[in-house]
């Protein structure tokens, strides 16, 4: 079991994200993963920095901490050739500590390039083509590609690492789980859904299984829930909704009925280590072995101390 810390780029300034990653390593986390969006989710969020620049700085300031995108869409806002190059470079400068988490994206960030927002079937076909292009470029040499959606002309990634990054594919259903098994090295989910792991395994999947668990460490339960509500109240909407809404104003309207009580139920709020274990355990039971803690509490340094002294040792036990 590997325990990670989620860097929430939509609500944290760039230099603070780097500082938190350094502190996460000191606290004993195995990895950090960072969201890769152009826009934040909610009007309260005031940031959305470039994930690849943040990861590069973290690689330079840490020694053993593994790094991951959680997750990148390599097929609309980015061309997959750019992601193949970026991931290969980051794997080199991090000395083999990078994992490429990818998914089909959300309208919130992908529509900015003016290509519209494809329906879900087309998004998955685009993702398949993107994975094929990345794998092709990582094989070395010059390549061209002509798919239904994506093109590549005489491209080569010159700097390839000795060991390629693992690719973990975000899956919200059996179709994506099968794609993760076919063209990925692992699977990524935000839900403790054992059926996804089962579908991935049945399709031949064998590798790391990433998930995100919701926590909100605070001096008391209510303040943790209030902090989580401000930052993460979009989470309970579920990915079928999250993928479709166009901007922070739409997310604000869609979350109007989600109150603090709902966040208290969904998140591990407060200082009780048993409550945190209770919320995290379903992910382990569902078969996930790389669990990133998505802390929505008000004090990240207090959370790092709590993890180092109490939660981390209990999870590892």
Automatic annotation (TrEMBL):
What InterPro entries does UniProt report for this protein, alphabetically? Answer: F420-G6PD/mer, F420_G6P_DH-rel, Luciferase-like_dom, Luciferase-like_sf
Q: Is Oxidoreductase included in the keywords of this UniProt record?
A: yes
Q: Which Pfam families match?
A: Bac_luciferase
Q: Which UniProt keywords apply?
A: Oxidoreductase
Among its keywords, does the record have Oxidoreductase? Answer: yes
> Which GO molecular function entries does the Swiss-Prot or TrEMBL record give?
oxidoreductase activity, acting on paired donors, with incorporation or reduction of molecular oxygen
Luciferase-like domain location is: 12-290
Would you tell me the protein name for this molecule?
Luciferase-like domain-containing protein
Native source organism of the sequence: Agrococcus pavilionensis RW1
């Amino acid at each position: 079991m590997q325990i990670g810390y989620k860097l929430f780029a939509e609500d944290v300034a760039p230099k603070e994200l780097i500082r938190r990653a350094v502190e996460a390593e000191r606290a004993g986390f195995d990895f950090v993963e960072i969201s890769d969006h152009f826009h934040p989710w909610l009007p309260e969020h005031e940031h959305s920095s470039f994930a690849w620049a943040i990861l590069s700085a973290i690689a330079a300031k840490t020694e053993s901490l593994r790094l991951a995108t959680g997750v990148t869409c390599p097929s609309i806002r980015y061309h997959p050739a750019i992601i193949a190059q970026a991931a290969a470079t980051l794997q080199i400068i991090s000395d083999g500590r990078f994992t490429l988490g990818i998914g089909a994206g959300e309208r919130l960030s992908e529509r900015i390039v003016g290509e519209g927002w494809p329906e879900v079937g087309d998004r998955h076909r685009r993702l398949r083509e993107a994975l094929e292009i990345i794998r092709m470029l990582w094989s070395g040499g010059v390549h061209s590609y002509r798919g239904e959606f994506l093109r590549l002309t005489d491209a080569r990634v010159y700097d390839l690492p000795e060991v390629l990054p693992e690719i973990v594919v975000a899956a919200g259903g059996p179709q994506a789980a099968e794609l993760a098994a076919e063209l990925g090295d692992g699977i990524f989910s935000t839900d403790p859904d054992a059926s996804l792991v089962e579908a991935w395994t049945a399709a031949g999947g064998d590798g790391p299984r990433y998930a995100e668990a919701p926590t909100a460490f605070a001096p008391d339960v209510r303040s943790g829930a209030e902090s989580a509500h401000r930052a993460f109240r979009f989470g309970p909407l579920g990915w079928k909704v999250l993928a479709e809404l166009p901007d922070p104003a739409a997310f604000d309207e869609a979350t109007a009925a989600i109150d603090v009580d709902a966040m208290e139920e969904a998140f591990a709020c407060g200082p009780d280590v048993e409550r945190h274990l209770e919320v995290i355990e379903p992910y382990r039971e569902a078969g996930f072995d790389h669990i990133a803690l998505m802390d929505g509490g008000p004090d990240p340094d207090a959370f790092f101390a709590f993890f180092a002294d109490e939660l981390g040792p209990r999870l590892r036990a």
